[in-house]
Structure prediction request, 340 residues.
Amino acid sequence: MTRLTVCVVLVAMLISAGSALAQEGLEESCWYDRLCLAGYFQARYVDTDRDDMNDNFDFRRMFVTIRGDVDRTTGIITFARVGPDDPNIDLYNAFVDYSFGDRYAVQFGQVPTWFGLEAWEGSSVRDTLERAMILEGGGQGFWFAGAADRGIWLRRMPTADTWEPLVVLGAWNGQFRNDDANNDKNISLDLKWSRDWGMFGASWFDGTYVDGNGVENPREAIDLYVRVFPQPFGFQAEWADGEMFGVDRDGYYLHANYDLPNGTDRAYARWQEFCAEMPGGNLEYDAWTVGFIRQLDENNELTLEYTDGDWEAGSGVGVEQELPSGSDDMLALQWQYSFR
Prediction:
């Protein structure tokens, strides 16, 4: 059966099921106005032409967050299954957010990053199925093991009707959701501006990462981004540059979207490039991605996406996983179910 036939059949099945679910309606799950439950999961069918991957029904992500609010304090616990190959459900976020007043707040614990735009923003609201290669990218990006890390982050909120940014200063382990493997701490600074028309910002972090073999390497990056909200056309762009696994790497993407007049559908397109400069030859990736999102109701969403990608892989030191040179095309259909 061809990939197009499979996706057409799946779309028809999912739309029928989604219409039935839409009649039930789900409201926010809260108890006593202080304890709330929210989350989402993403199920996919993926058709790929890579020799080292098979066509696959994939349970890509699941996040379930319990939030408790008491006076100035919010406690967050998130259980997640982030896949695609790991079937385990892990403790992803676990932190306290305390407000000192209108201007200052602090987060302490296992906290998702504030870095950039796509690394910081949750997958449930992103157009594309995956983050850009430079940010996550299956072992190649700065946040290859997920967005969370353990540390402390201080926030200074902007005053109303000013051009002040949200300022976030952090100190963290740099080992993602694991204990620190050395005495050095990563430090970060994030500046985020929000306007009526969109948002823009800059991020920086510097530190180390100790790999599974006990080798300590610099892990540092800078990031610039901008987003214009769709009205009905939208645009966003992001660029990041830094070092990881002893290798300089940089990348960017340009992303456009269009909200259709019916108020439920969105089309999008993206171009991205990625490069890791290794001694034995660069690891390079570029890709076009186009997609279409159908919002069945407030809880259910379908995304059909096609990526035309190409790898040129070197054999130099520092490649965590060797990727084949040549085509990396993918057609995917995703169902996302969210609740809050």
User: Anything to note?
Assistant: The longest strand covers residues 56-70. Residues 3-24 form the longest helix (22 residues). Confidence is low (pLDDT under 50) at residues 4-27, 317-321. The two ends are 38 Å apart (CA to CA).
